[in-house]
Amino acid sequence: MATLKANERTDFKRSTLRKIRHSGHVPGIIYGKETTNTAVSLDSVELLKTLRDEGKNTIITIDVNGNQQSVMVTDLQTDPLKNELTHADFQVVNMSEELEAEVPIQLTGEAKGVKDGGVIQQPLHELSIKAKPKDIPQTINVDISGLEMNDVLTIADLTADGNYTFTNDPEEVVASILPPKQEAFEEDAEPSPEEEPEGENQ
Hints:
mainly beta, 4-stranded mixed beta sheet, 13 strands
């Protein structure tokens, strides 16, 4: 479990927030049940590196002036123009209680339908699960190798491979295999009657 040091914030002026960001830090808030909301700032590079290495659902220990709390990142705000992290939300977690989390889906295998020329559609890219913090996976692998043309894979078809349960609607579609599009090449191959060259078939 990664540990990140943070400083408590007491000045909420915009000018102060700008200084925090210009110094390479990101302002954030620590919140949770039976927890007093605490405004903090921490090194943005260390935070992003931790999430990149450990995954977005990793449990982080945040140390604020010696007071350590186990948290998960629930929201990251960025400035798309500057490609800069502007704010982070951290939820205090109880390691013995279940919570809900969004976990990325990783499709594995090559579907039979794709080998036959079909096109895979993936309308769902994250799964909602309920689990204790230590049991939350960073990705959920979904094997699609058995899918054939026109097959549809739903939440009800999935089996959890860990200590968690799915909270999505069982009928929600995870992936499907569609037939290849039938392009109308007939117009190019056979001219319509009004386009037939004069003198033919006479």
